[in-house]
Automatic annotation (TrEMBL):
<dbReference type="Pfam" id="PF09339">
    <property type="entry name" value="HTH_IclR"/>
</dbReference>
<protein>
    <submittedName>
        <fullName>Helix-turn-helix domain-containing protein</fullName>
    </submittedName>
</protein>
<feature type="domain" description="HTH iclR-type">
    <location>
        <begin position="48"/>
        <end position="80"/>
    </location>
</feature>
<dbReference type="InterPro" id="IPR036390">
    <property type="entry name" value="WH_DNA-bd_sf"/>
</dbReference>
<dbReference type="InterPro" id="IPR005471">
    <property type="entry name" value="Tscrpt_reg_IclR_N"/>
</dbReference>
<dbReference type="InterPro" id="IPR036388">
    <property type="entry name" value="WH-like_DNA-bd_sf"/>
</dbReference>
Length: 140
């Protein structure tokens, strides 16, 4: 019996792509001293702040508990403040986040250029399909 999931299974091919992308993206985001996820969390905050942990989790596609742990680490580093409003934790940027955000944005730009060079005309279609299909699967 020969399995075909190597090329036809949405779960397997997406996970394999993500493992590869993560290894390469980690190299591009090394100047931040953190994994890319922390940069994306901070840049989402740069786009709109303050935000609740729930809002950020929904935007970024993380579990609330994972996002909360990442936010705790960033708070310990002095980049964000976290405060409770009822049962909800709200996060806001602190002035000390500016150098990190400058570096993160430079890393994102370099990563974007690299992926555009490597993926070429497939990149817009791929990212559009990933976004659309993510929305479809989230609706289950």
């Amino acid at each position: 019996m020969s399995h075909h999931f190597y090329e036809t299974c949405a779960y397997f091919t997406a996970a394999r792509y993500m493992r590869t992308a993560e290894v390469v993206a980690n190299k591009f985001f090394e100047p931040t001293g953190m994994r890319p996820a922390y940069s994306y969390l901070m840049m989402a905050m740069e786009d709109q702040h303050p935000q609740t942990v729930s809002q950020l989790a929904e935007t970024l596609g993380y579990e609330r508990s994972s996002l909360y742990r990442m936010a705790q680490k960033l708070a310990k580093m002095g980049y964000i403040s976290m405060y409770l409003e009822g049962k909800s934790a709200t996060i806001d940027l602190l002035p000390a986040s500016a150098p990190f955000l400058k570096t993160a944005n430079q890393c994102l730009e370099a990563w974007g250029s690299f992926t555009t060079d490597k993926l070429g005309t497939d990149k817009p279609a791929m990212t559009s399909l990933l976004t659309t299909n993510d929305e479809k699967l989230r609706g289950l």
